[in-house]
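Weekly structure sync, notes
Attendees: PL (lead), two postdocs, one rotation student
Agenda item 3: pending single-chain targets
PL asked that the sequence for the first pending target be pasted directly into the notes so everyone works from the same version. It is reproduced below exactly as submitted, 93 residues in total.
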Amino acid sequence: MGFDGSTTKTEPAANYQHYQTSLGSWSNVPVSIGGYTPNIKNVEHFENGAWMVKEDFPFVTTYISSYSVVSFENALFLFGKLALVLQTTYIAC
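Predicted structure, written out during the meeting:
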């Protein structure tokens, strides 16, 4: 959905699920970064009425999620925490 301050309108969906992420704005263009499931590290910009897939977010090996984003003077700042996922191995006896 889009909202211009007085009316809402339907907008196209992103190409990927951006679960547990925040929407940012870079140079007045909406930006979505990463996602928790299914291990998304891509970046999308909403340009000319469509979500355009950009290069993967750098420094990420699996996924990026659970962060907040601040847009300031044509820059994006991501803030978050480190989440560790421990793998448990079960041995049948």
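Discussion points:
- Confidence is low (pLDDT under 50) at residues 82-88.
- The two ends are 54 Å apart (CA to CA).
Action: rotation student to compare against the earlier draft before next sync.
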